[in-house]
Structures are given as structure tokens and as C-alpha cells.
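Predict structure. Chain length: 446.
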Amino acid sequence: MNNTTLAPAGAKRSLLPLLFFVALFLGTGLYLQSEGVAYAFYQLPGHVAIIPALILAIWLHKAPLQQSIDVMIKGAGNSNIITMCIIYLLAGAFASVATATGGVDAAVNAGLSLVPAPWLLPGLFVIAALISTAMGTSMGTIGALAPIAVGLSNQAGLDQALVAGVLLSGAMFGDNLSIISDTTIASTRTQGAKMADKFRENIKIALPAAALTLLLYIVLATDGAPVQIDTVNWSGVMPYAAILLLAVMGLNVFIVLLLGILLAALQGTFFADYAIANLGKDIASGFASVQEIFLLAMLVSALSEFIKQQGGLQWIAGKIQQAASSLKLAGNKAQQLAIAALAFSSNLCIANNTVAIVLTGEISKTLAQQHQITPKRSASLLDIFACISQGLVPYGAQALLLGASFGISPWQVVTQSYYCLILLLVAVFTILLKPAKPMVTAATPV
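Prediction complete.
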């Protein structure tokens, strides 16, 4: 069967499993939140919620069971997805080993040692931005800094919602920009872009937004009590700095992460009290920490394969192109806005920026190829707008964790997420005034 020639009704029907997944995941979260359940949107994990949707997709496929299973396996085993999942494993292993060897504490203390008391707000923003860029995880950054920030806000008499918003802003900066962030991995793999190219494209938008946010926090800064920190272990910062430098230089991401793991283990052995015999267990712990996103990426890709084979992706792409064309914007600006809107709205439903990128990656790549948008630009737009959305939803993991840490409502946290709001304005402004150059050849994936 030539699935691209399916009738529109069949193509639209192929989207039902995806809508079912979103409704099940989002509906469960909303119901549990109304019942006052903590971390309501994470009581039904995404990689479990998608199983009924896959069953529905198999049923709607109207083919022999083995043939439907073959479609599912083909999607889950997509080379880009498997490569992405292996990178997840290595990134998780690096984060685990770096934490075990004191790297996180070293990075936090190194940042705090440079912050004068009156500059606590802008200082915390910079520290959170640097640590999240080095670690590649907003949740890890928040987990490391939130206990410190709670004490500092109490000590300095600062508004807790404002401090929580500062941490969220800095954490989302690195979550979007870091070369070992799962969102960067997902966006570059789905768009066929090099990580170094995406980083350079991304930073043109993220850095001006961060500078404006920093100026805002400087204006809001007040005198505070002196900050007390532990002794700084500068060697612990070395692995983070090394992988960032090597990645920006364009070294293959697999080599970068393997070198990062090795450097973290060596610095812990020679400059800390790390027992090298624990390296295997720490790597395994890092693998386990990314299990959920690993499985979810494979299962989402499996679901997408059913949609793609039945014409659903082509139908969506056509509708988006119609809407984009109606905007009457020059060049490919309308299509860039369409990619941005796809990522932003998908994340509003899923509250997981990585999953939103994987879900919309195929459609976005099609739009990019048809309208001469470079892979690095489409990857950057996907990552930026998914992260903006994630930093503004009160039911996202970041806002929930900060709300619990500071004892405030997650809504109070996201209303102070100034970086995400400024990044939204800067990104849209960049699309409208500085369109991407026409694509000559597709970038080679890392």
C-alpha cells in the first residue's frame, strides 16, 4: 500500500493514537492536580501512558498483527532514535560520574564564590545558567541549587518567588543551549544538524535574551547578607569546561561524552576521595537515570511511524503550510513560525520539552526541507520554543520542584520566569527580522 495516497479521513484517523496519548497523559495530570496530588503530571509516566496509544495504533492499522508489530519495531529502531538514545546513556553516565566525584558541588561553589552579596539575583541567574549549560539538565541544576537558594533568600530577605524564578530562568537557559541536554540531542538528531552548528545558531538568540534578563535582575537586585560557601574545588569544574569546549570545537559527541566521563573519574581519583572501583556502578546509575526518556523516545518514534505510514504527518504538514502561507510573510519566516508554534503547543500538552521535540521533529524537518530552512535553524527553533513553553507551564517538573522547594505555588514560580518570556520575544523578533539563509545541502548528523 502506498500510504502517502491515503484519503484525508484515513490520514486524520491515524492521529487518534497521538491525541489519545496526549489526552491520557494530560487528563490524568489535571485530574490528580485537582485532587491535590504532589507532582500530579508525573504520577502516570509518559512511557507508560503511551502503551494504550500504541495498542490503539496497532488496531487502527488494520493489518495482520505481525505486520503491525513490524511497523512498531521499525519506528522504535529508527537509526536517529537509537543514536539519540545512546547519547542519552552517555550523557546520563557523565552526569552521574561528575556528581559522584564532586563536580556539581564544585561548580556551584565556584559560582557562588564569585557573587558579591548585593548581586545575589543576577549572580544566581549566571550560576544557574552556567551549571545547567555544563550539566545539560535543568532539573539537575534546580536540584543542586534550590536548597542553597532557599537558605540564601531567607538570609538576604529576598522574595522567594522571585528567587525561584531566577533559578528557573537560569536552568532553562542551559537546558536549551547545552550540547549534552536531551533537548539538544533530540533536536539535532531529528533535524540532521551538527551539535556545534546548532549551538552557534542557538546562542545568537539565547545570549541576547540572557543579557536582557541579566540587566533586569541587576535592576531588581538589592543589598543582601554575605554569602557563605564551602571551599572551592576548581579541579571539579574541569570536566564540565572540557566537554563544553570540545563540543563547541565540533568534536564528535560520542567522543566528547566518553572523554567527559574519563576526565570526571580521573579528577575525582587524583583530586578528591573518589574510589575508582565505583566507576562501573556510577555509570550504571547514570544509565538508569535516563531510562524513562530512553524508553519514551523509542515508543514515541514507534507511534510516529504508524502516523507517518498512514499519511498523518503529511496531512499535518499540509495544514501547517496552509496556515503559514496565509500569513503573507516574506521568505520562509512563516514556516519558521510554524515550527516554533508546533514545538511550543506540543509542549503545552505534554509538559516535557524533549518529548515535544521528538513528536514534532518529523513534521518540522519536512517543513524545513521544503522551505529552505537550514537544519541548524530548525533544530534551534524546536529546542528554543519547546524550552520556552516548558519554563512557562506550572505543571512542568521544573516549576513543581521549585514550588515544593520554596514552599510556594508553581504558578508563582512561572510568573517570575522572566528569561523564558524575554527569550520568546527575542526569538520571534529574530525570525521576523533575520530569516535563515537558504539551505544548500543538509548538514551531516553527528
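Summary: The CA atoms of residues 48 and 123 lie 40 Å apart.
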